[in-house]
Design brief:
By secondary structure, this protein is of the alpha+beta class. 36% of the residues lie in helices and 23% in strands. The protein folds into three domains: 3-11 and 100-201 and 225-230, Peroxisomal Thiolase, Chain A, domain 1; 14-95 and 202-223, no CATH class; 238-383, Peroxisomal Thiolase, Chain A, domain 1. The longest helix is centred in the N-terminal third of the chain and has 20 residues, at 18-37.
Length: 384
Amino acid sequence: MPTLTNFSMRKPRYQISQSRALEWLTEIHAAAQATIQTLSAAERDSFAARMGKLIQRCACGPDKIASRGHAIADLGSSDFDSLALYDVTHHPRGRGTEVRSKLFAEVVNAYFEAEYAQERVAPSEIIHVTCTGYVAPSGAQRLVASKGWGKDTQVTHAYHMGCYAAFPAIRLAAGHLGLPVALVPANSVRRTDIVHTELCTLHLDPSDHSAEQCVVQSLFADGFIRYSLCDDGGQAGLSVLSLSENILPDSADSMGWSVADFGMHMTLARDVPDRIATSLRAFVSELFRKADIGLAENLRSTIFAVHPGGPKIIDGVRDVLELSDEQLRTSRDVLLDHGNMSSATLPHVWMRLLESPEVRPGTLVLSLAFGPGLTVCGGLFRKL
């Protein structure tokens, strides 16, 4: 049975409290507007006051997200004319996509190098997952070249799927494990590593003062994690029992993530939680049916690993499926400690469940994530 194992997480270089992050968002939006309109000091302060009220009303507060990680030093700094990316004194929208892509490459290349520094055994495949930056050769390809693993390790890129991307990555990894020997490298180790590198904080546009963007900018953080899929149930991990995916009808405009001139731009409709809710019961039933496990007799003892896109997403899953708060506690804890790290978030939840002594071996774990499409993804696992 395919098993998720060997989890390894690295925190971004910098951390910022959510209270300071929201203050900084107010400051940088006001500084950007001052540059655009050449505001006086009094006018800038007046705009900052209005912006602060909007952010306090719309943003995810410190009671839901305590802190977030970021890979570049800009966040939290008020010296706006000397920042590497968000130099709003001269560039009110921040630097363009070329600069952001360069920063992405530098951070991701360094992450791969550090993460695999002590690795002596080459995986047969590395699947690199991200939706926040694209350069070629990728950090995964550079790693394989520097390690001399070119004949032993294939690289696959699973890009631009958003928060649910861990599930397609698992499907890709499972397909690799099932390939005949003639189609994979001559490597004695049949192991696929899945590596997530999400730098969400590269994609702020300080000139966009909409309520929708205040919500987005208060949620997302940077995250880095890797894990393996092995065809071996003899080690600690999550055994993959079933997977499923559903693109909801007439929902294509509910969520979007597009490449723009100044980073990437997210759109998020208010009806996303409601659309997800209408499909959830049938979707969860299908995951249990595929695994040939009874839903009614197991639902109350199952732990739910839900991608914490925001507090309302977790609340919606709880209410629709009539779950206890304890069944969803780990998802809330990861949101509190890290924020929304896009595709890297759910693997952080899985890792924490594996490390928790309170979640005993044999426990069923039902995992859910949502993203553009509107796509509902999920998997039923068992803790080994």
